[in-house]
């Protein structure tokens, strides 16, 4: 009984952290909080002996870490996207077709 309560508490905590991550404006903070939520989901999966929950959230952590590292690296995706967006904004809208 006590382990059921612990698992349920961990599951709700993971849900709260993951949903709460969407309230952050900065993408890097969102990713970090999502990583934390996924780690809590992994703990939930371990408590409930749910291999799919563990596997899915290990993939979430790996993807989020890859994305965070890619955006931090020189010429990373985030910087490249910002440069491209800036270039397109400066160029103005495309000509209207007739």
Question: What is the radius of gyration computed over CA atoms, rounded to a whole number of angstroms?
Answer: 19 Å
Number of helices: 4
Return residue spans where pLDDT drops below 50 for at least 5 consecutive residues.
none
Approximately how much beta-strand content do the residues carry?
under 5%
Number of domain modules: 1
Sketch the major β-sheet. none
Helix and strand content put the structural class at mainly alpha
Judging from the principal axes of the Cα atoms, what is the shape? elongated
Average the pLDDT over all residues and give the rounded result: 84
SSE arrangement, N to C? HHHH
Classify the helix fraction into a percent range: over 70%
How many extended strands? Answer: 0
N→C terminal distance = 70 Å
């Amino acid at each position: 009984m006590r382990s059921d309560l612990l698992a349920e508490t961990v599951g709700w905590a993971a849900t709260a952290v993951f949903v709460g991550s969407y309230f952050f404006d900065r993408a890097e903070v969102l990713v970090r909080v999502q990583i934390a939520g996924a780690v809590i989901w992994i703990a939930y999966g371990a408590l409930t002996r749910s291999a799919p929950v563990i596997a899915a959230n290990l993939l979430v952590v790996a993807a989020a870490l890859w994305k965070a590292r890619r955006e931090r690296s020189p010429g990373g995706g985030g910087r490249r996207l910002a440069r491209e967006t800036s270039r397109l904004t400066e160029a103005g809208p495309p000509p209207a077709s007739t």
